[in-house]
Amino acid sequence: ACSAFSQKSCEECLKNVSCLWCYTNNTCIDYPVRSILPSSSLCSLSNARWGVCWINFEALIIALAVVAGLILVSITVCCCYCCYCRRRSRRLDEEEEQLARKREERRLQSLQRKHERKLKHDEIRKKYGLLQDSDNPYSRFENE
């Protein structure tokens, strides 16, 4: 069916997806399905057209390879970035927990030291009679 479009135009030939147009001899040939790329004996890649007439097969292969490479690189970068962020966020969570534990330990130590200071001060006040008797919180106010 493709050979019927030979010596006509590229656009008419490429209306059928299974056809390949060769500019060297203006022929429309069946696309070699068994091999991915048409052999150079059939038509050189720079003169072969498939799908559209305005871009040769060689440029089409290069463009598709570049686009596929960019997609693969971007997917790889996204995966690596996501894994790094996930690992980093896990590490940040662990650091936050550790800081919270240390903060709580410091707070408890501070409260313990405060309590010990209060006990010492109460002993000193008791020694010098400055501490009110806890049994009798009401005492007489004496004027001198």
Automatic annotation (TrEMBL):
<dbReference type="GO" id="GO:0005634">
    <property type="term" value="C:nucleus"/>
</dbReference>
<dbReference type="GO" id="GO:0005737">
    <property type="term" value="C:cytoplasm"/>
</dbReference>
<dbReference type="GO" id="GO:0006606">
    <property type="term" value="P:protein import into nucleus"/>
</dbReference>
<feature type="transmembrane region" description="Helical">
    <location>
        <begin position="59"/>
        <end position="84"/>
    </location>
</feature>
<keyword id="KW-0175">Coiled coil</keyword>
<protein>
    <submittedName>
        <fullName>PTTG protein</fullName>
    </submittedName>
</protein>
<keyword id="KW-0472">Membrane</keyword>
<feature type="coiled-coil region">
    <location>
        <begin position="85"/>
        <end position="121"/>
    </location>
</feature>
<dbReference type="InterPro" id="IPR052304">
    <property type="entry name" value="PTTG1IP"/>
</dbReference>
<keyword id="KW-0812">Transmembrane</keyword>
<keyword id="KW-1133">Transmembrane helix</keyword>
